[in-house]
Give the backbone structure.
Amino acid sequence: MEKREELYAGKAKSVFTTDNPDLMIMEFRDDTSAFDGKKMEQLDRKGMVNNKFNAFIMTALANAGIPTHFVELQSDNESVVKRLDMMPVECVVRNISAGSLCRRIGVEEGLELNPPTFELFLKNDALGDPMVNESLVETFGWAEPAHLATAKELTFKVNDVLKKMFDDADMLLVDYKLEFGVFNGEVLLGDEFSPDGCRLWDKETREKMDKDRFRQGLGGVIEAYEEVGRRLGITF
Ligand code: UDP
């Protein structure tokens, strides 16, 4: 696949056009950011680890019948993906309370959430990704109601697949964020799934193995990501 010009550079990934107008190359950089870009650092190996991690998860999800934009690995830190018309919202499912949920409603971290919760956030850095809901998405035309309904259904289907996958590898899938887009009228899972966009705890010790290590300055960030991968059987 021939890489052409850079279309977009986000906080941790860049996207390039290719010789095929339907396909793009997603490059995972070593850049790591938190708090809407207020904390930024380069972490050695992160681009490669997240690229391979994402390829593994996207392939597992596709095998479980969840349509995704992932096509194939292009290199150690790049993947070929379908070019989607992205919905500007983040879909978050939580199995255990943590992060912004605790801050927003004043509950302690670590409560089992039954049934799991579903939240929507508008992708807007300047506004700090405010929480929105299905009514706002429809009124402001951020996504077709039917497309949003599919995205929500797929977000929960991902939970069924990944909760079990991580549990089998002695980890708890605490919460995660997904982004969806439309390709030829079909809703596909886009963006990435890596320890940057989810919370994973060791099942026994509840030690954090995700980007909270970076957010909270706990150190050993990439070592933890690699340990998650090792437990899943990913070779980096
Ligand atoms: N998340 C993300 N990108 C964002 C916001 C959240 O990937 O812009 C992920 C985050 O890593 C966590 C989940 O979504 O796994 C829920 O995040 P939360 O709402 O608790 O916000 P945070 O505590 O990360 O500010």
About this structure: The chain has two domains: 3-82, 85-220.
